[in-house]
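User: Can you predict the 3D structure for this chain?
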Amino acid sequence: MSVIKDLHKITTDGGLSFSEKVARLLEIGTEVLGLETGIVSYVHNGTYTVVQAISPLNEIVSGAEFPLSDTYCADTVNANGIVAYNDIDAMPGNSHPCYALYTLKSYLATPIHVNAALYGTLNFSSTTSKSDSFTALDYDYLLLLADWIGAEVAREQALSEIISQKNALEEQNALLNQITELAGVGTWELDVETGALKWSASLKRMLQMNEKQDITPSHALNFIANKKVRNVYESKMEEIAINGNDWAYEFEVITDGGEKRWLESRAHPIMKNGTCLKIIGATRDITERFNTTQSLKQKTAIAEQALKARSEFLANMSHEIRTPIHGVQGMLETLCSTSLNEKQKEYTHVAMRSAESLLNIVNDILDFSKIDSGHMTYDVEPVNLKELIEQQIPMFRRLADKKGIEFITETAAVSDTLFLADSLRLSQILMNLMNNAVKFTDKGSIKISTRCTKYGAGRFRVKLIVTDTGIGISDEQQKVIFSPFLQAEESTQRRFGGTGLGLAIVNNIVEHYDGNVEVSSAIGEGARFIVTMTLDCANAGVLKEKAIAANKVTPLCKRVLSESRVLVVEDNEINQIVIKEQLKEIGVSVELANNGALGLAKVTSAIARKKPYDLIFMDCHMPVMDGLAATKEIRALGETVPIIALTANALSGEKEKCLRAGMNDFISKPVGVSRLGDCINFHLSYKQEKFKDPA
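Assistant: Here is the predicted structure, written as structure tokens:
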């Protein structure tokens, strides 16, 4: 019984350290068991580490490490229970590695468990054999000591963890205080039950309060300048205490110093079992931002008003000028029908051409003012683009013939399709481009060609290409060529005239049709303008086709899905895994390429093997070669496989870049299986007619 009293006394002694307690417990163990050495060990990854030891000459020190296999404790760990050797010569024998190294003759040990996990061993040993076998009472003492030591170890670990967490929390609080001070943020805390309010020193300084002064909720509300806002703020505090939702609000305050400032405050309720215990928050001074925003709003309003006034002035002046111009043209036409001598006819024709030029200038200004003010209107009607081009050709062909310029047209690509568009606006595009080509070309040729590719159900990507062998356009001029009033260099403007609005108008009309205008040129080498537009088809049956496409696409049969070859060009390994699994769920087998260059190589190889891909999902931003460049290279091969942009960049203009590069569709990440399935069904729907679902 005295042993138990001693154990209790040691373990409850608050004046002893953990190391001192374990040493005293080991001393008791050696006395009770009659063995000279006692060790508490920590066992981990095959290594035996001495935590605390009692030995005759103190030759075993804390922290000493040994291979576990070289100790009798390896037997204890394997047995996961008590191991007793009173005469090692008899059992387990002198062949044990520990015997050869340490010549121990007797050994008694048991595992120590901490929080149900093996920690190490409690072992006692001597260099002499024990004449009698260890008794059941010895085992009980051993287990009791192991339990006490395990409990002390667990307590020490828990205490160390608490101290570590406390230190980390103190460091975090210190860091948070520094961050809030640097950021100019003040923190506050409201006890919902007692109504007690605490403000940080930085928040008090923000409101020009004395840092030692106490603050109450009513005092805090009185800082808010507007009474209605004050009532809203107070009711919101009550509301979030009930619903548990965060809240943010901006309001004007009057500080203790009488200054007006704007603050932004964010509140967060602390809930427990559905009850709000307190509300914590952060407040920052946004006066500078608020003033800047207000100033920008005022400047924006002034600028918008100025633009509106300018547009209205241009529109009014254009209309006012058109009236007398039409009168002049009418009188000149009447004059031409009278009897005139040759000289009079020549003068009259010169006057008529001048009136036409003046009218074209006014029309340009009028159209630009409509675009600038947002009043440009577009009709929707079936348009035969081939006929529209041919109607414009004669006038420009005559001008070209006078200069000895060859005039070439290629309209076969659009000969079989009617498009829904505004014929007047399309004519403006053609007239501006052809007029510039004739104006700036003195020899050689002018060529007008068309391209047309299907772009979904009832939609087409239509290209109008105007190429000339004229004076060309410098690199600097190409940067501003579509800006109003900045198209031509001063010398060119003086020589050829014009408002500088034609290409700006073309660009705006093309943008209305989800397209773009590209130019390639060099001084002395002519120019090439490529207009790309997305137009709906007006042919019979198309409206029905578009209505069907607008609804959910009919799922493809299993055979179509399983036999379709899909390539995913994606550099992110995680995204590769995700989309591969998604496509697997849909029923499509997939091949992967880590970048655009590898994707291009796979497409080239597939074409060579006459096993082209049916669909390609293309990431936009990748190393080695990005998706836009890879798409252009694939299109250069003559490959028409649908290419779907798959990108996390969902910013304005990104879709247009992808379509301009030759892609057929655009999906922004993250994308779900349903969206992928709809995309695949849409772009591979043409294959459905070839197969029947066997199921």
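The chain has a mean pLDDT of 81. DSSP finds 22 helices and 23 strands in the chain.
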